[in-house]
Amino acid sequence: MELFIIGIISYLMGSIPFGLILTKVFLKKDIREIGSGNIGATNALRTGKKLIGYSTLILDVLKAVIPVLYVKINFPDAVYISALCAFIGHVFPYG
């Protein structure tokens, strides 16, 4: 059961679309309608705001690092499950 919970939480953390959130909040634009239409850091840089692009990059890294480090410290046998689920959440987000 704990592996399932670790996987779900890691997936949900990995699926947070920071590029979309940051451009909506600070630029009042939909990043999916700018540049390539991708919600990632490179397209966030295309908005012309370097702070938004770099913030997206840092937050995208942290959304995987935080659950993986937590699991590595508390459940070392499940670290690969956490990393895989965070990756899958990033590539295939919910919604």
What does this structure look like?
By secondary structure, this protein is mainly α. It has one domain (2-91). 69% of the residues lie in helices and 0% in strands. The chain has 5 helices and no strands. The protein has helices spanning 2-14, 18-27, 41-45, 50-74, 79-91. Helix 1 (2-14) packs antiparallel against helix 4 (50-74), helix 1 runs parallel beside helix 5 (79-91) and helix 4 runs antiparallel to helix 5. It is elongated. The chain starts with a helix and ends with a helix. The model has no long low-confidence stretch (mean pLDDT 94).
Task: Tell me the span between the first and last alpha carbons.
Answer: 25 Å
Provide the β-strand percentage band.
Answer: under 5%
Number of domains: 1
Calculate the mean pLDDT score and round it: 94
Backbone CA Rg = 15 Å
Helical percentage: 55-70%
Number of helices: 5
Tell me, what's the shape? elongated
- Poorly predicted regions are none
Secondary-structure element pattern, one letter each: HHHHH
Number of strands: 0
Largest sheet: none
SS-based structural class? Answer: mainly alpha
